[in-house]
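lol forgot to send this yesterday, sorry. struct tokens for the thing we talked abt
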């Protein structure tokens, strides 16, 4: 009887542990999905920006306000993506620092968030992907949208 009790307790603990792991996994997946979605939105904003820059260059339009507007949206979107990346790092840290809780926490500054750069003429320089036509950071080695290697 006491043996059975012992066994049952073990099973309970194991189940609780698996349950927690699974929940963390789901949280992470959800975050990861949101992150991809928001990053994709950012890509679309860059694409739109590239399109307008191209039109202005070809004198099809001179809607400079639209560029201003898009730059503001991109700035906000970068904040959203940064925040999600931060949350993902926190969740990752939580899982890895259960034993060593007293160490100083490193702050992760994301480096892979693309930011547009302006050329001499004030237009934004973007590297367009031949696969999906998304405007990427000029330094990008890989397309942020489809993963094409430049
Ligand atoms: Zn691409």
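and heres what i got for the seq, position by position
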């Amino acid at each position: 009887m006491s043996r059975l009790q012992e066994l049952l307790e073990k099973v309970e603990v194991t189940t609780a542990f698996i349950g927690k792991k699974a929940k963390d996994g789901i949280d992470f997946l959800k975050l990861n999905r949101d992150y991809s979605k928001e990053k994709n939105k950012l890509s679309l904003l860059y694409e739109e920006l590239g399109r307008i820059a191209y039109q202005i260059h070809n004198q099809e339009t001179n809607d400079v306000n639209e560029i201003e507007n898009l730059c503001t949206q991109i700035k906000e979107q970068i904040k959203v993506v940064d925040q999600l990346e931060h949350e993902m790092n926190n969740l990752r840290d939580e899982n890895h620092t259960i034993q060593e809780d007293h160490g100083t926490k490193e702050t992760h500054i994301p480096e892979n968030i693309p930011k547009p750069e302006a050329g001499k003429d004030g237009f934004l320089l973007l590297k367009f992907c031949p696969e999906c036509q998304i405007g990427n950071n000029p330094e990008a080695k890989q397309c942020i949208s489809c993963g094409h290697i430049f």
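The chain has one domain: 2-94+106-136. anyway ping me if u want another try
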